[in-house]
Amino acid sequence: MSVKKDDHEPIRTDALLEKKSSRRTFLKGLSIGAAAGSAALTAGCIGSVEAATPEELKLRWQEFFKKNYRLMSQEEKDGTVARLERLAKMRDNIDLQMGSYPPLDGVLYGYAFNITRCEGFMECVTACVKENNLDRKTNTQYIRIFEMEPGKLDPSTGDGRYYHEVPVENKFYMGTQCFHCEKAPCTKACPTRATWKEPDGIVVVDYDWCIGCRYCQAACPYYGRRFNWGKPEIPRDEITVRQHYLGNRIRPKGKMEKCTFCIQRTRKGRLPACVEACPTGARVFGNLLDPESEIRYVLKHKKVFRMKEELGTDPKFWYFID
Amino acid sequence: MRPLHERNLRTFLADVIRWNLIGSLGFQLFRIILLGVMGLGIYAYSFQARYGLSVTGMNDIVSWGFYISNFTFLVGVAAAAVMLILPAYVFHDPNFHRVVIIGEGVAVGALVMCLTFIMVDLGGPLQAWHLIPGIGIFNFPSSILAWDVLVLNGYLLLNALVPAYILYSHYKGRPADERKYRPFVFLSIFWAFSIHMVTAFLYQGLPARPFWNNPLMGPRFLASAFAAGPALITLILAVIHYSTTYKIDRSVFNKLRLIIVISAIINLLMLFSEVFKEFYFPTHHSSSAVYLFFGMDGRTSLVPWIWTSVCVNLLATLVLAFNPGKSNPKVLLPACLFLFVAIWMEKGIGLIVPGLIPSPLGEVVDYLPTWVELSVTLGIFALGITIVTWLIRAALIIEQDYSSV
Q1: In terms of residue numbers, what domain contains A156?
Q2: Does residue A263 sit within a domain?
Q3: Across the interface, do A209 and B126 touch by the CB < 8 Å criterion?
């Protein structure tokens, strides 16, 4: 992957994205496309293969033919992690610390959201974007915050694009993200079993096994999944280098991704980035199997409810009111 | 014509290719245009291969667009071949026997287009091998998409191999042994219904999308397919009838008209039933239908589209039903064309896109395909038309000149 390519790419895709269909813009698009195409050819962008060293080619070859994550032995998992780290070093000179650590024993993660406390600051969104290496170009966000009218409890009635000083008098705020359903419609839909529920309850995607058909996205009733329509772009100095194979590693283009409860943090006993960032303490995360945990306290002592309960998806994400 | 003793599988293939390379100037021009359009499709796809699906109009809310719309519609066209197979083999209608092979050719072309549309819609087409059982993982029977892969490829095989066997037998100057292919013909009849039902279940099985999560989806798919498919086959038969020496009996057209009219009326009835359910007492599950028919939050890109489709559909059905020109082909053939286009509009974009709008969190966006999507789609249509003309040309030459039975 040459540096040159990265210089050209955003400009051209931007130009192409603007092109909607009418005959005039079609012809205009065609001419821009033709110019871009010939520029790409002369710039030698297609030759990223020939620019690669034999070692890189070998690694890419091995990466292409690797198995689904769930079928890998620990040795194979270590192998692919090492290859991905090496490739990142060779291509972008970044020292990743990638892991593939398994779920902790006796842990089932759950999440609760206090709609009384949330004031819509969106610190959680910023922290999530940073922690999970989300694409900055298309502004991918796992978390959505909706500004709600009193008396409503369905985020689809709220405003998810508010841009003003918060909190606003007589409004409240509701956050959504992947709810890590126990009976997840997305994992059932996937034709290649590239997405599944881990033993600790986290619904994950094997980015390299996903074929990008987007059936899971259509199946999700919570808008919990995001697709990499192009190659994600993250400023070099903002890349989170502590990564997990199933978590925040930088996704290839054309693959599905989603909230993983910050698997790279939570499996090491830390809190998800959104919970840590929340200035009002509206977010509660913990082990549902631990009777002493805060999440269990909330479920026991607060009035909780879940979104679209009627669909029977059994989300592990509760809303509650103080 | 090759002497009988020289004919074998190798000369069969060579002859099929040869027949399709020679032809009149007009025919050559037609092929070159198709080739050019396919080239345009490949050129447009090269952008998608390089920059990903970001060069399409799709986004996280409208995550399926023009490709999947056309795929869905063409499954119906493929399934419609059964409307020729059924009378020919089950009711032993001799006139249909002469045209059944053309229906099968159309089915093969439609299926190849379906599979190509799926391939171009994938974010990781190079990973498509992950679907192949053995080397990949096939999420069967849980994923309806896995079922769809299975039934579409199976139907393609059935519709390619049975006619190939019959044509090859005729090419060799002997009648095809009906005992050998009859079981497969009956299998393909059931299979035709299954490709349609399974594709409908793909959408119908998603409680996340109330617009699709509707038990009428499968039956309505069938009804619209059995109207649009035979309408297309009527047009193709008319082209063959007028431009070649292979004459089609008038009774075939009359019977096809009957099939189209009945299916189109059932389709409209079900459409009416759906519209009634959505609008008599609208709930929040009706918002997709509201968006489709009336627009929402000032976004109305599909409103003219769907009303055009419904009106044209209604008019064409009326013309075909009441037959005002007394079976004048100058009236009926345009009606078939309009019906086909109306169903394409409604069952393609009109079904897929509003199912995704508004998003599960209530956000409304408009979707417009980009020039990349339009060009790739045109390229795939050109590919399908090329395949259909190749198959039909070979079939007609064999049936006319070689078949001694």
Answers
A1: 109-321
A2: yes
A3: no
Neighboring chain A residues of B372 at a CB cutoff of 8 Å? 16, 19, 29, 33
The single residue listed with the structure tokens 């830390």 is: A270
Structure tokens at A308: 């679209």
Q: Are residues A34 and A91 in the same domain?
A: no
pLDDT band, very low/low/confident/very high, at A74 (cuts 50, 70, 90): very high
The answer to whether residues A82 and A123 belong to one domain is: no
| 8 Å CB contact between A208 and A66 | yes
CB contact under 8 A, A220 and B146: no
For A133, left (φ over 0), alpha (ψ -120 to 50), or beta?
A: left
Which one of A209, A222, A227 has the shortest CB-CB distance to B63?
A227
* Distance of alpha carbon A317 from alpha carbon A188, whole angstroms: 19
Helix (H, G, I), strand (E, B) or coil at B25: helix
Whether CATH 1.20.1630.10 fits B4-402: yes
Asked if the Cβ–Cβ distance from B139 to A12 is below 8 Å, we say no
CA-based nearest residue in chain B for residue A189: B143
Whether the CB-CB separation of A191 and A215 falls below 8 Å is answered with: yes
Question: For residue range A107-140, what is the model confidence (pLDDT) as tens digits?
Answer: 999 999 999 999 999 999 999 999 999 999 999 9
Residue B60 contacts residue A214 (beta carbons within 8 Å): no
In this predicted structure, the answer to whether residue B396 has a pLDDT above a threshold of 70 is yes
CB B19 within 8 A of CB B393: yes
Q: Which of residues 199-228 of A touch B (CB under 8 A)?
A: 208-215, 217-223, 225-228
Q: How many domains does chain A have?
A: 3
- Residue B209, SS3 per DSSP: coil
**A68 & A198 share domain:** no
The answer to whether residues A81 and A175 belong to one domain is: no
Q: How many helices (H) and strands (E) does chain B have?
A: 14, 0
Q: What is the pTM of this model?
A: 0.91
Q: State the Cα–Cα distance between residues A248 and A254, nearest whole angstrom.
A: 16
pLDDT at A49: 55
Q: How far apart are CA B289 and CA B283, in angstroms?
A: 11
Shared domain for A10 and A66, answered yes or no, is no
DSSP B70-139: HHHHHHHHHHTTHHHHIIIIIS--HHHHHHHHHHHHHHHHHHHHHHHHHHHH-S-GGGGGGGSBTTB---
Instruction: Please state, as a whole number, how many other Cβ atoms lie within 10 Å of the Cβ of residue B291.
Output: 24
Whether A100 is in a domain gets the answer no
Q: Is residue A189 part of a domain?
A: yes
Does residue A207 form part of some domain? yes
Contact: B363, A213; criterion CB under 8 Å? no
Identify whether A291 is preceded by a cis peptide bond (ω within 30 of 0): no
